[in-house]
Amino acid sequence: MQRRVEVVDVVDVAIVGSGVAGSLVAARLASKGVKVLILEAGPRVRRPDALALYRAAAVKIPECPYPNAPYAPRSRSDQPDSYYLQNGPDKFESTYLRQVGGTTWHWLGTTLRFVPDDFRLRSKFGVALDWPITYDDLEPWYCEAERELGVAGDPNAALDAPRSQPYPLPPIPLTDLDQRVSAALAGTAYTAQPTPQARNSQPYQNRAVCCGSSTCIPICPVQAKYDATVHVAQAERLGAELLDRAVVSSVEIGADGRVSGLRYKRPDGTGGRTVAKVYVIAAHGIETPKLLLQSRTAERPNGVANSSDQVGRNLMDHPSRLSWALAGEPLWPYRGPMSTSGIESPRAGGWRADHASFRIQIDNRGWEWPAGTPDQTVRTLVERGLRGAELDRALANHSSRELSLAVMTEQLPSAENRIVPDYDHRDALGQPRPRITFRIDDYTRRALDHGQRIHEEVFTALNATDRHHGDAIMSSGHVIGTYRMGADPKTSVVNVDQRSHDHPNLYLLGSGVFPTSAASNPTLTIAALALRAVPAIQQSIAL
Amino acid sequence: MLGRRAFLTVLACVSPLGRIAGVAQSFSLDDFVRLSSRLTGRTDLDRAAAAAILKGILATPGNATRLIQPDAAMEREIIIAWYTGLYADARGERQLATHTGALQWRAIGVHVPGTCAGRFGAWSQPLRQPDR
Fold it and tell me: CA torsion A145→A150→A151→A155, rounded to 10°?
């Protein structure tokens, strides 16, 4: 669509970002007849094009199938300094995508709910802060989110998160590896639980069943794994408009304290302004606070929605460490979805006054993540002089016994861990790039140690050899906590409805609102919270 | 010994030929497939993958000559390229020759990542050590 400079769109609700939060809200509102415009910084992506880029990539990082547009640049997993400017002391390595459908294009698909204690860390353990809502407040919305995303789950899995309704889809079958690890854990203090996942075990939303391509990250070739293009398409069918390659550069505030418009820039040098009754910013944990902060004016030198000075602060991830070993018997990895079970009880551990909760992801991809297999195994064996049938046998023997485990921990909010716009370093459209300060504290590091001790117990139960415990702290791709939700306007950015304390017609959605990170993958909670905001957004339209 | 045949085959399948013309004339795609079969022990090698790997190897100056009488290092490079689908360019950086043609997945007995693996839930069954 060609637009001239200073085109003004007038709608009921303007949504910035077309990821899971923005697209879910757009579809819900459009279904009720609300006039919605979604502004997406990145382009539309066609799955066949993305698959071709994936196949052609020499290094198959999560971002390899997707554009990195100069007008909407982003970080890369293997180049954490390519977009972020890093103050340290630790590197922030989690990434996200800027394109229609957002980062759900390359999410794993894990849809664990948080556990009740995640919402009351302060009152139960004296640590950090409580959420302004409880697990029970969110539980009905978890059920709705599971229906929207199409979650396949085992009703008998012990996940410490009570359910009022069944999973919408029957479970994804466990891999042979899962079953062998689970059997070996009998007699230990730990159990492997089937992972709930937004992956089709039967046709759902006109999408196919999982065909076991094993590339959930970077891309599902058949869209058996949910991604937000499902709800983008639904929203558009219901009448919502989506403008791609529209990079929102400022949020304007009127004399009455309400948001009065959004300014955006386009790659061709044109731009526009969107005026709405209600504004929703759902551009994830880096771009949302950056936009709010760079919208500073003489009247608001701290930026928009920032009377608390909390915008951009409390940046969190799920810091992770890997361990890998060769099991005593073949487990036959490299098949099925990338992870289908985990050790989940440490998410609800009673030790949270001392160190973080965590989960242990059991990987179905052999040593691919920690050691770059099978390529690296091939190199080692060939250098050793093996070839032909002998090489094949040795490669199969090694690969079939590979197991890797990843402890993924909660991280406490810290005001010092923050993202700010760096006005001295700008992208192709002249937007400031994100500058990040990030430190992983001892509360989290003690949990990483605890998790790796459990890894060792699992290896022992599997009679494993060649045991490795990585020292490196890995990112999980989870960007959390930069516009926190709370009851007190002095210490939080949005209220329980995820509405700005400062501007009554501004909503901020996504994992940025999480006051604490919990240890579970964030997407289902992002979706549940977004759905929970819809009635409040509707009320705001009428005001 | 590898003969001087089918220069035109190489011309059709391997570029940039201009930089290696003169030395590459003696080494055809057929020659490379035969050499690869000897090194991998497989007779059913994919010709498109072979062309891509040969092109990658030839992109490094000097490799055209090395292919005629490959030393142990060149043989290992060819085997690694066939199994991983990757080759090292002149700067030592890994480049992709073939994704679906990489032999390592056949050797392990699993599907190529990103391609459908067959029946839903097949991953829940044990896998037998693959036959060659």
Answer: 100
Distance CA A148, CA A534 (A): 14
Q: Report the interhelical angle of B72-84 vs A388-400 (nearest 10°).
A: 50
User: Does an H or E element contain A420, and which?
Assistant: strand A418-426
Q: How many CB atoms within 10 Å of residue A147?
A: 16
**CB within 8 Å: B79 and A391:** yes
Q: What is the DSSP letter of A228?
A: T
Contact (Cβ atoms closer than 8 angstroms) between residue A131 and residue A120: yes
At CB < 8 Å, which residues of chain B contact A?
A: 39-41, 76, 79-80, 83-84, 86, 93-96, 99-100, 104-105, 107-111, 113-118, 120-127, 129-130, 132
The C-alpha atoms of residue A196 and residue A173 are separated, in whole angstroms, by 11
Consecutive sets of 10 residues in chain A, 543 residues long: mean pLDDT of each?
60 97 98 98 98 96 96 96 97 98 98 98 98 98 98 97 98 98 96 98 97 98 98 98 98 97 96 96 98 97 98 98 98 97 97 98 97 97 97 97 98 98 98 98 98 98 98 97 98 98 98 98 98 98 88
Question: How many C-beta atoms lie closer than 10 Å to residue A207's C-beta?
Answer: 18
The backbone torsions φ and ψ at residue A213, rounded to the nearest 5 degrees and listed phi first, read -70, -20
Considering only CA atoms, which of A517, A528, A439 is closest in space to residue A479? A517
Comparing CA positions, the residue from A227, A209, A479, A147 lying closest to residue A337 is A209
In angstroms, what CA-CA distances link A533 with A38, A102, A131, B113?
A: 17, 19, 16, 38
Tokens 């030198």 locate to A301
Angle at B28 between CA B26 and CA B31, to 5 degrees: 100
Which pLDDT belongs to residue B129?
67
Best interface-test mutation with B: which of A334, A338, A381, A397 has the largest number of B CBs within 10 A?
A334
Q: Which amino acid is at B8?
A: L
Residue with tokens 């020659």: B31
Whether residue B129 and residue A212 make contact (CB cut-off 8 A), yes or no, is no
Burial A155-168 (b: 16+ CB within 10 A, else e): eebebbbeeeeebb
**How far is the C-alpha of A49 from the C-alpha of A65, rounded, in Å?**
8
Beta strands A241-243 and A193-194 are unpaired
The catalytic residues of A are: 478
ipTM of the modeled complex: 0.94
Asked if the model's pLDDT at residue B2 lies above 70, the reply is no
Determine the Cα–Cα distance for residues B10 and B24; give it in Å rounded to an integer.
Answer: 8
DSSP 8-state secondary structure symbol assigned to residue A511: G
CA distance A166 to chain B (A): 21
pLDDT above 60: residue B18:
no
